[in-house]
Amino acid sequence: MPEQRISSERIFDGKLLKVRVDAVRLPSGREATREVVEHPGAVAILPVTDEGKLILVRQFRYAVGRKLLEVPAGTREPGEPDDETARRELHEEVGLEAATIELLARFFISPGWCNEELVAFRATGLREIGAQPEPDEDLEIVEIDPADVPALIASGEIGDAKTITAILAHLGNVSSRS
Amino acid sequence: MPEQRISSERIFDGKLLKVRVDAVRLPSGREATREVVEHPGAVAILPVTDEGKLILVRQFRYAVGRKLLEVPAGTREPGEPDDETARRELHEEVGLEAATIELLARFFISPGWCNEELVAFRATGLREIGAQPEPDEDLEIVEIDPADVPALIASGEIGDAKTITAILAHLGNVSSRS
User: Could you tell me how far CA B37 lies from the centroid of its own chain?
Assistant: First the structure.
């Protein structure tokens, strides 16, 4: 490890997040502090219909103060494989079951200060089985034509890392196959 | 606002991050808590050479415990326009000046709990003027062929949201023009 931990102060131990401040020794010998947010990770799933339409959810996000159009997603649960989390969120949030799910991308959301890893899947061969939203989860299900994606990104309606990455990876993949 | 703040507890006031826990009133009337990390936002810039190669930096990321290949990027500075931050990071981190910079995408990195917004630019018409790394910034500058991007994403060497989004947006844009 190029940066050696000297000490660690636990700042916050929340329901979702943990925060710590570490003192580290840099390769130069100097000391520095690192503010770190620990997050269990998240799983996203992009449902693609037989006609190539994308199923997204519109929801209010308190941390940013607005509604966003996002791929269905949820926090990783201890002991639950990522593809099961993906299938569960697909069922709960948009009421769909998928014949096939494939990995689109996995990435850290902001590795300079946070360990949250995001795993994004694509779901195809969809079948409606009825949504089961959690209490107080206020989701609007929206079907998007891929041709509208650039305008939705430009307007900010589609405006988060997991959704943009999943859609661009999906569309890139489709075009590289055709 | 669908969720009304009832109270807010300030947990941490760091050099980079602020953390608070808010009690909110949901549309249903129920109360819930929201753990929120405040971040000033960040600016990324993807340098593309006249030959179409991508200039990335390899650096150790303490929060995730490994090295990643990333687009040059930096934290937003109060009062500094995003395109100036981009040009400054381009100079400091990889020693380049750009004839043209264009917006590729802007997005929230994890809007469920964090307000960090990332603004990604593309830089072209590059000219070498000499890097000016900050003290203790341990960056290796790497030139990437776009054809190698899928393998680098699959291996996890390229593995963060801003880098994947910027590259996919750039490559999508290029192919949609051709």
Answer: 16
